[in-house]
Amino acid sequence: MKLNEFQQKLFDEQRPHIETFGKRATFWTIFYLLWIGLGGYALYLQITKGHEVTGMRDNVVWGLYIANFIFFIGISYAGAVISGILHILKVEWRKPIIRIAEMITVIATIIGPVFILLCVGRLDRLHHLFIYPRLQSPIIWDVLAIGTYFTGSCMFLYLALINDFAIFRDAKLNVPKWKQRLYKFFANGYRGTPNQRKHIRVSMNLMAIMIIPLAIIVHSVLSWIFGMTLRPGWHSTIFGPYFVLAAIFSGTGVLLMAMWVYRKMYNLHSYITDKHFVYIGYIMMVLAAGYGYFTFSEYLTGWYGSEKWDSEVINKLFNVHEYGWWFLFANVAGIISPIAIVAIPATRKPNWITLSAFFMVIALWVKRYLIIVPTLESPLLPMQDTRTAWVHYSPTWVEWALTLAGVATFFLFFTLMSKFVTVVPISEFGDKEATKEKKQVVVQEVKKEEVIPA
Amino acid sequence: MKNEEYTDQSRRDFLKLTALATATAACGSLCSCGGKHDHSAMSHQSGDTVKLLSPNGEIVEVDSSMIDHHNHMAMATREEARQGIPGKKFVMVIDLARCKNARKCVSACQKMHHLPKDKEWLSVKLMKDNDKASPYWMPKTCFHCDNPPCVKVCPVNATFKRQDGLVLIDNERCIGCKFCMAACPYSTRVFNWTEPHQEGLTSADYSPETSTPSKVGTVEKCDFCPDMVRQGLLPDCVTACPNGVFYFGDENEDVVTNGDETVRLSQLLKDRSGYRFMEELGTKPRLYYLPPKDRMFPVERGYDALPDDLKARFKDVMENKK
């Protein structure tokens, strides 16, 4: 595969990262594996002793696991929507960051459903979902939607990677044979012929167009798992749009965090520039405003009304002795802080923006928890139960261990991926980019000539 | 000649032997299906003895575990359990004016289904409709709704609505996603968070109509005891209640009975102003309540004599009584 000047420079800078695993990556891999190991032990306990080792009981039947599921599928929107939309709009500056975005999508869509599996009581009967499905059930809609979405996202990621795999295959990298074989396999015979280029371009355009309605469907379906019940706080018409917007919003947050980490770790400052942070920051700010509007509308309506059940849930969220502080944190860190930090020019810098993104992501996780648990703690019939574990949900160490194991798996996949392919895609900067550079050089030359005689 | 005779006789013998062997094997496999639980049932000497009358007219004492206590004639097949008892439309009426929280219904249900003390398929709530109203005891079973929100959301058809009106659960199909529990607005379903320890039960005892034994990781609830009904008996909660609070019957026949009184359902609901709990949810429950008017007992009768742990449940409502 032939590389232009820009691409060659880009490739040479990133080459060492895919050639050697490195001490730092080894350290982090072991660190993540330890957390995953702890999660494995927790899972073993859960399988052998039953779900009684979690904090879930007959009233709060869904807890941390479902919050994690919604959270991870939410952040997967980084690639699906952001990468998809930027691709359709043919925005030039998207190029260095789309691979990170797509990786977030694929990895998050793998880990999210694992959390549902952790919540299911009979893992030995999962095949029932496929041999006895009921299409009327939102869970089956979920299975279909996420299955399709995952397939589509993998395809989208892979299509963008084919050209790069061909570059790695031909670059005579100093890698072990198995890795070279993998590159050859994934390159799938790509030679960069005009026909092949056209196929990839058309496929990617199609995938980008298809993935956007697919993403909207996925998170709407997820929200309807709550929205289709009769519970206060869940049976709200805003849930579909609310969850979709929150997902894209949290996706930008995780994208910013990933950009910051990779930029620092792999010294990519000339490619993932401050400009990228500002632009994604603008997107984050606009989405924060939208998310804030939906949140405000939802809770103002609930608070203003007098219905007993809605009021019970709202009171739990506003009461500082119950979930008040968490609700405040979720809204300040989740809405106000991203807007403020990006709006004020002095803080519109990569570090500040990433910091606000970090707190925003945490805040959105807390928000998912606040959607699930307070409603379940407010059933329509009085609980009249003296067992504290039945009245109030308190996650156990098993649930936390599995949550952290999921997060560790997420980071582990990222670490391993970045050792397999370059973080900034090489092939994206094909002829167009080189032509643009050439044009700039020619323009400068012409200008010089014009100036000197005068 | 001799050979043909021999062959005819030996063929008959062979067929008889094969038939006998097959029948024995079939019986043996029926006995041994259910795996390890069967061993525990048969070899476990419970110590309880049962007096039986032998064919010779003698009284014989046999260990309880040697006897199959279950009426297999009444066991429905899987298909029958899904279809329901034809021609019936079961309905229950609970007379709130009579309930004094004796909780005999709760313990009878738990005994019949081998439930531990803290698992209640039938629970008694202390309800107070508004500040000025007097609290009243409200026993609550599954309502077996005609528009069940639980059935709507089950992804694998583990919970289903039958033609006789009952909503049952097949705990061999259930994957334990608990969506039905989130969807039920009446908090009637319970989950097996741990391995249930139910002595002496085998999987041969299970059908969606018996709902027993429980299985870990699955959902369960009140089933209106269709296995009892098939035997012509009333559910245990109905017969156990000392005050005749529960009426059970058939909407098609328009009759309900509490074991003592048998009344016309439509007349009862008309005269006593029967209503359904939270009618506005649109789930169309098959359980009607008769309002707590002209009560048989003051509400304290059901509270003062309770053990402390149960009293603690209702303390808040009782203290706000005035």
Word description of this protein:
The complex is a heterodimer of chains A (454) and B (322). Chain A is globular and about 70 Å long. Chain A has 17 helices and no strands. In chain A, helix 3 packs antiparallel against helix 14 and helix 11 (274-304) packs parallel to helix 14. By secondary structure, chain A is mostly helical. Chain A has helices at residues 5-19, 23-49, 64-75, 77-88, 98-119, 128-131, 138-170, 177-187, 194-227, 239-266, 274-304, 308-318, 324-343, 350-376, 388-391, 397-418, 431-451. The longest helix of chain A is centred in the middle third of the chain and has 34 residues, at 194-227. Chain A is 74% helix and 0% strand. The relative contact order of chain A is 0.17. Chain B has 322 residues and is α+β, with helices and mostly antiparallel strands. Chain B is built from 10 helices and 13 strands. In chain B, strands 12-11-10-3-13 form a 5-stranded mixed sheet. Chain B has a two-stranded antiparallel sheet with strand order 1-2. In chain B, strands 4-5 form a two-stranded antiparallel ribbon. In chain B, strand 1 and strand 2 form a beta hairpin. The longest helix of chain B is centred in the first third of the chain and has 31 residues, at 2-32. The radius of gyration of chain B is 24 Å and the shape is globular. The model of chain B is unreliable at 1-5 and 32-43 (pLDDT under 50). The chains are: A mainly alpha (454), B alpha+beta (322). At the A-B interface, helix 7 of A face strand 4, helix 5, helix 6, strand 8 and helix 10 of B.
- Percentage beta strand of chain B: 15-25%
Helix content of chain B: 25-40%
- Specify which chain pair forms the largest interface: A-B, 44 and 47 residues
SSE class of chain B: alpha+beta
User: Strand content of the residues of chain A, in percent?
Assistant: under 5%
Q: What is the overall shape of chain B?
A: globular
Largest sheet of chain B: 5 strands, mixed
Question: How many E-type strands of chain A?
Answer: 0
Helical segment tally of chain A? 17
Cα(first) to Cα(last) distance of chain B is 104 Å
